[in-house]
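request received
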Amino acid sequence: MTGTADDYVTELTDELSLRDVPPEAAERIVREVSSHLAESGEDPIQSFGTVKHYADEFAPRSLTRRMLLPLVVLSGLLGAGSAFMVLSGIFGFIDPSQGLWGLAPGTRLAIGIVLFGCLLALIAAMTVSSRRRLAMWKL
Amino acid sequence: MDESPWPADWVRVALPGVVLAIVRDEESYGYLIAQCLGAAGFGSVKGSVLYPLLTRLEQDGALASTWREGAGGPGRKYYTITDLGRERLTGYTSAWAHFASSTAAILAPTKTKDAQ
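response:
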């Protein structure tokens, strides 16, 4: 197999994994692509199209996959925001002179906990969605 | 391989039945099926069309498959037709013959139709 074909199957493996295709099914799909390319010597893009296009044939992009970057940014903001507000609340209790936007330490702590809860809910929703897609697969 | 002389839509519609017919008598694998299709005038059927179709036929229970290791290569996935696949192919063949004859009758020159 050429370097291009190797790159293609590696990318395809990653793309199918991101789309919650079970590893066993993804391996079969990728293996068949490898087999065809090894036998035909064809260019992978010419024969199978782009990796994303070919992956679409088996597993259309989930909402999580389509919104991956915004979700990563949102998770980061929720994590950083919750840690900041919780720490601010704790330091506010230790030293009442440490203020933040005129909010009482208890309020800051509560906001931090709520933000952390939102982060957990987001992760749980993504996990459940991923498990459901995995369970729906058959090959 | 040359392009198919037929419109892509025709090839797409005919492909499931034709693939079942190719593996009807003898097991085959993806690349060989593509070669058979090319030899039969279907042109170069892309992997992006053929393999998802084979997967769908397998998921539907019309085909069964088994992997055989190759010497130093990734091996081949051999497809065989199942009883359900044979049943589906019989229905497909009959429906296609009816469709083809009906279409030919309409497409035939007016004089021929008048003569009938």
